[in-house]
């Protein structure tokens, strides 16, 4: 008698907890560091009290590796760059198509929206929409390197031992451009691309003695730049803008061959469980006042109409100090990476790293 | 009845260990073996084969990196032993009972902060505009800033610093068990300091030395952050190679193969070390 | 001045202070060639420090140590021809028996062939010719003991120090090893210095024994001298068993002292000419159990030569030939006396009234230095 009463109580308690659990939704966000500022998360949870946001910070490669390991489970919304959707989806089937009707696409800058759509459409289904864009390029300390203007200048003996770069695919592409080639065009013919990579490798191996060190993240790059140990480096624009805030001599330099532009997107992991919450988050961060908070945290420009004007004042100053309209027109957007290219580029990078000066 | 209970309690005691070994060690490794034997022929299409291992053999960069990692790990192990032995000897034999705990604690302190913070600590000290370089300039010993970072010496130093505790602990525990009278007997029977060290203290401490070396070597060869952050333009480490295969190149198959090669290589070195020193795993690692 | 060559070891005015503690306090002695010399004392008396100074592990605060006539104060331990058998033997567990014995020879740069011969030879002499290839942990306690001695003796030392090496053995083996050690010493004809707190080890084996207390030597002598003619109350109490009373001197002459114990008993003691006693001094009185005759029947005893006392048997302590009786005297004290238990009806039984008597000559009396107050 007693035990049945107890059992009934237990079941009731279980039902209660599971009921309240069903009510509260969790949005598991897989994104870049600084892409989910605490202020914005708080604001979102106040607006949607039944949604809890859990954030995991990562980068392009790790996002794909994580989703690949689970077949697209464990997260409800991911933010890979626009060139990392197509081949990853083909090879590992980790995303699901987006329902554009649930997204307020009207606020998005058309060129970015169309570009991302074109990049990420498979069998007529769209797999991503744009969020923010930014560039990879160069930065220089104008006091020490006033004439610094192109990728090739990193290897200029004038700056021997005073430059730095990151030994990843960006520098391969930038160097190819500085040699007068168009690497993205060569994607269509992988033999041709391999020949181009070999040329780039020779150039970068020769350049090795000119480089102080390869940087690994924003922190060591910032330290080297601020201390004056290096005067010019390959950089992410957001890092350069941050340093501009501390030293007005350090500016972002769009390479003369064009800064390499990326668009970070929103994509739904294939086994995500909270699509509605994900759409709510997307629309939420595209609201104008939230765009400013987001850009203040990330240093990147939102892919919405008038995104540049929604930057916080100091970031806007840094961007206008760096870019002319011509520079913006000259942006080179990363092209979709065809299968196999990552391996080729990886081998090239290993070759450069292993080469002795 | 009694023996049934005994057997049951034995099974219950053993079960967590068996489950741990099976689920967290054996199964993942079996998965890795299977993964490493898959060759990618097209997107989402794989074939069974040894291609990933053949790639390793055909690419000098890979096995050079492995040999480099191995030889630098051996160097780190030797340095850790040479530096750790006197420290362990001091703690076990010379320091008083009371100061022993404090000394042990001092050795432990580096482990209280993460690998990353420790590496950044070294970076702050050793960079061109860092503490050492500034001090040398201030004291007038040098006129130009000096870069201590980004070379193999720094990597070796950082690694020795990280792993030395794992050398000291087994050494202290074996030396602690050594009767002081044994050392005095060594002198009394006519040995000088060197003979006593070579013929008595070192042979006695051999189990501790070997187990310390094994742990330190394995930790060093498998370390990731320290060599990456302190290393220079040319210093590649095999774990970095594995990370690159898995993460940046999405090539899990060859990453798994590399992981196995690292395991096989380090196991081989340990086996060789045991053979050369005439020790066995049972009377070294299992004992200390 | 005696010829220095007659002595293997001479210590003169040896002192060792640890801070305010005088571990060894002005000790002088000479040990003749080829003798078995024991230093006997309670733990903490300074005997281990004394031995460590001889071996060279401690430096004396002052005084001199001479081995075969020459001072070794500036000789490091590994250059002194003094070898030591440690309390726990300190055999090297990572070497086999052969290598343990060969270790010292190798240190001295002896050639391999000669080492081989010497090791075989010494193993023969300790009657363990077949153990050369054994590991240390395969040996029995007695074998380890002998190997530890062989390891030292193969180096032909001037003096062999032994630091209570029998302490870890069980009783039977210890008894056997006592005899064996004595025989080994005869066989090697080397000076042995044996440190112990066990009086029976010291008495059985030694030619001479030094009794040490509080850093000083109380007395040096042959075992029977120490036993029968102790110089001080400490020696009388420490060596052998005895019944003890505290009392004071009533009067005395050149040969005898009349004392009264604290319990009011009048006794007559043999006079030791150098005792320095005077009337009224506090004294300790000792009588060994074997000199007390405890009898049921009242025997005629001469009051002139005997002390007497009566009491009742409290209990019998049967131990074969060493059996004793505990008698509660009329004034309530317990007294031990040796008896012979034959198993016949004449044996003493618990509760029997007995008379005890012992000779004046066997009653020892010393100035009370307070050593026994705490007990």
Instruction: Determine the strand fraction of chain A and express it as a percent band.
Output: 15-25%
Using the alpha-carbon principal axes, give the shape of chain B. Answer: globular
Distance between the ends of chain A: 84 Å
Kindly provide the name of the CATH class of the largest domain in chain B: Mainly Alpha
* CATH-level-4 superfamily name of the largest domain in chain A: Periplasmic binding protein-like II
Assembly state here?
Answer: heterotrimer
Helix- and strand-based class of chain A?
A: alpha/beta
Helical proportion of chain B, percent range: over 70%
Estimate the mean pLDDT confidence of chain B. Answer: 88
Task: Give me the number of helical elements of chain A.
Answer: 15
Report Rg of chain A.
23 Å
Stated plainly, the CATH topology of the largest domain in chain B is called MetI-like fold
Q: What is the chain-wise order of helices and strands of chain A?
A: HEHEHEHEHEEEEHHHEHEHEEEHHEHHEH
**Main beta-sheet annotation of chain B:** 2 strands, antiparallel
Q: Output the helix-strand order of chain B.
A: HEEHHHHHHHHHHH
CATH C-level label of the largest domain in chain A: Alpha Beta
Report on this model:
The complex is a heterotrimer of chains A (357), B (288) and C (375). Chain A has 357 residues and is an alpha/beta fold. Chain A folds into two domains: 2-133 and 262-311, Periplasmic binding protein-like II (D-Maltodextrin-Binding Protein, domain 2, 3-Layer(aba) Sandwich), CATH 3.40.190.10; 134-261 and 332-354, Periplasmic binding protein-like II (D-Maltodextrin-Binding Protein, domain 2). Chain A has helices spanning 2-23, 38-47, 60-70, 86-92, 110-120, 169-178, 183-186, 190-207, 218-227, 237-246, 275-285, 288-298, 313-322, 325-329, 341-354; strands at residues 25-32, 51-58, 77-78, 95-96, 121-122, 125-126, 129-141, 163-165, 211-214, 232-236, 250-253, 260-266, 268-269, 301-302, 332-333. In chain A, the strands form four sheets. In chain A, strands 7, 8, 9, 10, 11, 12, 14 and 15 form an eight-stranded mixed beta sheet that branches. In chain A, α2 (38-47) links the parallel β1 (25-32) and β2. In chain A, α10 (237-246) crosses α13 (313-322). Chain B is mainly α and 288 residues long. Chain B has helices at residues 2-36, 51-58, 60-94, 97-108, 115-126, 131-138, 152-176, 180-188, 193-221, 225-230, 238-248, 252-277, and strands at residues 38-42, 45-48. In chain B, strands 1-2 form a two-stranded antiparallel sheet. Chain B contains twelve helices and two strands, in the order αββααααααααααα. Chain B is globular. In chain B, α1 (2-36) crosses α12. With 375 residues, chain C is α+β, with helices and mostly antiparallel strands. Chain C has two domains: 4-233, Rossmann fold, CATH 3.40.50; 241-367, OB fold (Dihydrolipoamide Acetyltransferase, E2P) (Beta Barrel). Chain C has eight helices and 20 strands. The longest helix of chain C has 18 residues, at 171-188. Chain C is globular and about 75 Å long. Chains in contact: A-B, B-C. The interface between A and B is medium-sized, with 37 and 29 residues.
